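LAB NOTEBOOK - FOLDING QUEUE
OPERATOR: T.R.
BATCH SIZE: 2
PURPOSE: Compare the predicted structure-token outputs for two unrelated chains run back to back under identical settings.
PRIORITY: normal
REVIEWER: second-year student, initials M.K.

ITEM 1
FIELD SEQUENCE / FIELD STRUCTURE:
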Amino acid sequence: MPSPTRSKLDLTVFITVLGAGALFLALGVSANALATVSVALSGLYGAWTGTRSTSQRQPERDQPGD
């Protein structure tokens, strides 16, 4: 279970990135450039927090035969 401090940090980062994205769009940054930067930053944040993508498959364990 995540700690309350960790949840607050995740929420703070999410709102900050969302606000920055809205600001950049308002300033005229293209959506394609913003999407590229967003993907890169989310990868860096995931590496910093030690989280892994859920799309990675877990290795299957050998099941004993009947």
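ITEM 2
FIELD SEQUENCE / FIELD STRUCTURE:
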Amino acid sequence: MFEDLTADLPDLLIKLRGQATRKHIAEVAGVRLIRLKELEEGLKHPEGLETLGKALRVYRVRLGVALPTGR
């Protein structure tokens, strides 16, 4: 679970990539290399969400949302 999406997401993407290069992942995902780099470095770009979706498909990862209960 992410507590701070801005800090945790780039770390997760780097770990998921493992030994693969950014270039290889970008090629398979069909995204520009610079957009993948921006995601891994935590930079914002209008195409970021679309790029994230494509990259996660390559990694075979799905995001889910958990809402706190009772308050």
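REVIEWER COMMENT (ITEM 2): The radius of gyration is 13 Å.
FOLLOW-UP: none requested
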